[in-house]
């Protein structure tokens, strides 16, 4: 009553043993594919972590530089601006990691929070006891009167260009892991598991436990079994090309590092623009929001302090160099994996599974 290992000679197998063999080949095939995938998956997961660490390092450096600028040049509001600044960089980090947010919403939300501070601490430094309603009115007025000129929109444009490739690369790496995980658990067809049993275990039914499959026979069986996985070859090659494009895009003109370095300058220019137009802004705000309480004897307007280059350059340069090195290493490795799915049958037949350098092997029917 054997279904797979039918042979003219006497056999030591039963139908139940054939079923056990089918379960065994399915388990072994999954393990073999997982072993093949391990290095590739390990490399991608490692680079997801490395890229994220490099992004975080660049963002932290940019945040520290911007915080230093506010502390040095705009001390009256620096402490209160710390929270909106932290939120801005958190939002940018989440955007790179693929969160449902936009660079524009993050930047404009920051400038919405910044305007009440600039207005009450720098343009009209005597203001006190600002109510929530008045602060909210200032936030909403920012959108209408555009106190920061073109600087807020310029910052959106620069960061959107620079962060786009980083976000896409992060999402593409996650997609790569998803594809690999899916191929690991691709179900073997009934025909495939029977063919694998015939190749690996039918010799055992005749007591031939040391005979292994012939190389050509193994390749034929594996190509049939792995046909659906091998079909990924064209898309996988395209995927590698896309990763290469995104990595080059990150290193090209829309450079993440350059854009992040520019955040402090954009914020500085935006605040200077608002201060220079202080009287007109005050007149407009008074009409829209009314006049809040004033302290006795207004403080003199805060002087604009010349901005010095923040002393955070070294960590920023190191993070920049680390990111570029990671990019090069990763793309070099991924290029070598272009044929990963095209050659999966060859690699599954490699090693101990088949008989090499021997004149005796199993061809599915007999020892040859």
Automatic annotation (TrEMBL):
The keyword DNA repair does not apply. This is GPC5 protein. PROSITE patterns: GLYPICAN (PS01207). The keyword Magnesium does not apply. One of its GO terms (cellular component) is extracellular region. One of its GO terms (biological process) is positive regulation of canonical Wnt signaling pathway. Cell surface proteoglycan. InterPro entries: Glypican, Glypican_CS. Transmembrane segments: none annotated. Belongs to the glypican family. It is a lipid-anchor; GPI-anchor. The gene is Gpc5. It comes from Ceyx cyanopectus. It is found in: Cell membrane. Keywords: Cell membrane, Glycoprotein, GPI-anchor, Heparan sulfate, Lipoprotein, Membrane, Proteoglycan, Signal.
